[in-house]
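Data availability excerpt. The first of two example chains:
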Amino acid sequence: MTVIPVGSIQLDYERTGAGPPLLLIMGMSGTSLSWGEPFLQKLRRDFDVIAYDHRGVGASTRLEGPITIREMAGDAAGLLDALGIDSAHVLGISMGGMIAQELALATPERIRTLTLGCTYCGGPGSVRIGDEVWGRVAAARASGDRELALRTSWEINVSPTFAKDADAYQRYVAIAMRRAVAAEVILRQAQAIAGHDTSARLPEVALPTLVMHGTVDQLLPVQNGHMIAELIPGAQLEIFDDVGHLFFWERPQRAAELLLAHAGAYA
């Protein structure tokens, strides 16, 4: 990873592969490692892949106080500026998808194609994490048992079938142990998500847009994907049956193929 000045802060990023630029915007509590190597390897064949860590994560500037989704979208635009990239294909997942929505609304000229995965736009009709799932997360964190917290996080991020994949779980744990995200940063990110609502503005998005979502997503249920695709004119919706929140872990090949086809159609 490399640290680069972005306005008044610094962001930790990695740039790999070859082809048109693809900016990856990660979700809450995630890092640039959280995309997983199987998915990244497939993207690197066709894209100049740019993955970065949000403020407070990795070697990026320490997060001081509250932050908003719009401010994080400003960080994403600033990273493109710092790298000398006029426009890029953009993939944002979960909280990163919310950031990508704000980026598309504020600076559409910076985006060649927009892909929104397992995300949420706020407003009437949107659905966030349920009480039962949130209760499991809270109880696991409060237990002080790191293994329990990691296992619980894994089980709510993927489908019940994929949760049984021992090798995938070990990769997930290794990433979490290699680059942990502080609880205070996760709290600030959660507060930013709580204030996110682009629902009334999404019809203004005039970009080629692909929406991807798993049917058994426990964190941001699939209704959100349908809602976003209905609000953005001409958006393409791809649903992954029996797949959880981390669709790019469960279906890396298919997700990469869809992204490439989407980007290629507007090259």
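And the second chain:
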Amino acid sequence: MPELPEVETIAKYLREGRENTPSLIGFKIEGAEILWGRSLETPQPYEFVQRIPGQRIEQISRRGKFIRFRLQDYFFLVHLRMSGDLWVEPESAPIAPHHRWIIDFDNGWRLAFNDPRKFGRAWLVFDDQSILGRLGPEPLDESLTEAKFYQQLHNFHRRLKPLLLDQFFLAGLGNIYTDEALHLAGLHPLMISSYLSEEQSNALLSAIRQVLREGILRQGASIDWVYRGGDFQNYFRVYQRTGQPCPVCATPIERINVGQRSTHFCPNCQKIPEKVSVSS
């Protein structure tokens, strides 16, 4: 699933353009076609194709794992989920397999949502906070201070890995960057959040920010066919490196399941405290 760095990269491409595609800022929508109705969470497809024409794209940003389009009268939100991607292409291009909806602009370009696994969703709403309002803080936002993060961790008594994946706790992290951050901070994924010291909490926040910034710098990670473009996968410390040597101590990386999520860690650098056992 695309995580914060991958979604940020896609939003940047849409906002600034790429070598062969223009920025979408200022583009006026001419019409839309919904090719698979369940990809649109709200409104109903027939309402969407009536409301969207004439709207101009004013801003493109990211919140958590959502791509946020500010239109003249609405907010258009897209969550890529497992395999979604947004393609900017000429209207003359053949409709590719797995396109789920298409938005046509009045200048010969279109925006297409391509999603082989059909988990991605989109919303056209007047108030974006009706969808985004429950998300946790942005990990790169300076308003998330060390003191606030420490207090957040101690407001819960949960294992670190599932807590960091909870979008209502912290917005944007997924399996990749959580594993990478926990290794960098030297924390076991099964540690209980309320047991962390201030020093450990500060190290974790710093590690989260470091791996996310590096991921953005490297335009995300290309994993199989789900996301195309970045090369952060070439710099993984632990993720998908089961049996390979830890870059710090050379101990073989291990893999366990935590909350039904595959989790990678170094058993030497990320020792589990006596208070918590792997079976707990």
